[in-house]
Amino acid sequence: LRPRADASGKYSAIIEASKEILKQNDRGGYTIPAKGLYPYQWNWDSALVALGWASLDETRAWEELEKLLSAQWNDGMVPHIVFHQPSPTYFPGPEIWGSVESPRGSTGITQPPVAAISVRRLFESAHDKELALKTATELFPKLLAWHRWFYKARDPEGTGLVATLHPWESGMDNSPAWDEALERVPVAKLPPYERRDLGHVNSAMRPRKEEYDRYLTLVYLFRDADYDLKKLYNLSTFRVTDLCTNSILHRANLDLQWLARQIGRDDADQEIATWIARTQVAFNSLYDPAAQIYKCRDQLTGQMIDASTSAGFLPLFARVADTAQAAALAATLERWLKKVRYGVPSCDPTDARFEPLRYWRGPVWAIVNWMITDGLRAYGYDALAETVELHTLELVEQHGIYEYFDPVTGAGAGGSYFSWTAAMCLAWIL
Ligand code: 9WN
């Protein structure tokens, strides 16, 4: 990861605004993604936000990860949302994930495991080496247990690729990649519900009702099975191999192995090495040479999913692409960038399903750009990485620190004063 010093002062306004957003969204040891819209601690948001805190306050950065991992379940899972304090502004909250009688402190599903990647980065850049060693040593067993959970709960057949059982777990909720798999989920008779997201954001920028009905159907299905890891894999009517989760998990394993060696946990080396070796090979089954991009797979039909999304570039972040695959991905990305003003759109802009303002069906997301640029640089595509980075900073500079952006007009959309967008700016610039 390449630090970019802001010697010229060009980005000082973005830096100041980003720091302010993290402070405003700080709820004491954890950061909410955005006021009103997302009032709890989200898993991969927090791990990325820690990278922003690092430039402001190292102790606070470690705290963010400690708080997230303190919500780890006994079986090793780290939940996708932690409900530290009640809030009426988000649905579905603890009363839905648990039951009205006994609300749960978290959701019962997970999100892409960014945390180990952040721990390595904080450890490497730490000024306070003693604190870094102490905290990384404490967090290591939790990270290892979480990764173990992924293989046990989500890859019981040992294929090297883990399953995602809910679109919310992918972090790319309404990606066109999930359309067909989600359509096959039979909608249960749901208790009436009111979406709170539509009170904060225009409905044209959010998932549709058909999608929400299925998101909730899956939540109730999992809740009725008491989120039992042994049951969910076979029970879920939605089961996919997500590129985002698998790329991040693989990269997180590489970073966890690096950490094991730094903190004297060589005993864990072999186990992590086995995961790495298996996944490295398995990723080839997700590469589509005709489309020159990686694709997700529907595990219930066995079919490769016919959708090219920005997650298709994340194998670069994972370092699993070979030289020829990386060249093909760079060429695909260049083609996409010719079709829009700002990259990287979350869906192929020539695809009929591309919607420039609707959430994960077109908009540009700073966190995805950050991962893609990291991957491009690792494979020597520095100029292309620079283009994507500058597009993102330009979007933020001209339109504000939004949740996501229209790749055609640049307009900011979704939530405003958004934590992970701010954090990515700090991680890039400082
Ligand atoms: C559901 C918080 C989260 C992100 C996800 C993003 C969105 C939630 C929602 O917001 O999801 O988890 O209600 O829309 O899709 O990636 O973690 O920023």
TrEMBL record:
One GO cellular component, as annotated: endoplasmic reticulum membrane
Keywords: Glycosidase, Hydrolase
The keyword Hydrolase appears for this protein: yes
Residue ranges constituting the Mannosylglycerate hydrolase MGH1-like glycoside hydrolase domain according to the UniProt record: 38-421
Keyword Secreted among record annotations: no
Top-rank lineage group of the source organism: Eukaryota
GO terms of molecular function: Glc3Man9GlcNAc2 oligosaccharide glucosidase activity
Gene Ontology terms describing biological process: oligosaccharide metabolic process; protein N-linked glycosylation
Family to which this protein belongs: Belongs to the glycosyl hydrolase 63 family.
Designated name of the protein: Mannosylglycerate hydrolase MGH1-like glycoside hydrolase domain-containing protein
Organism from which the protein derives: Marchantia polymorpha
Full protein: residues contained: 80 to 509 of 511
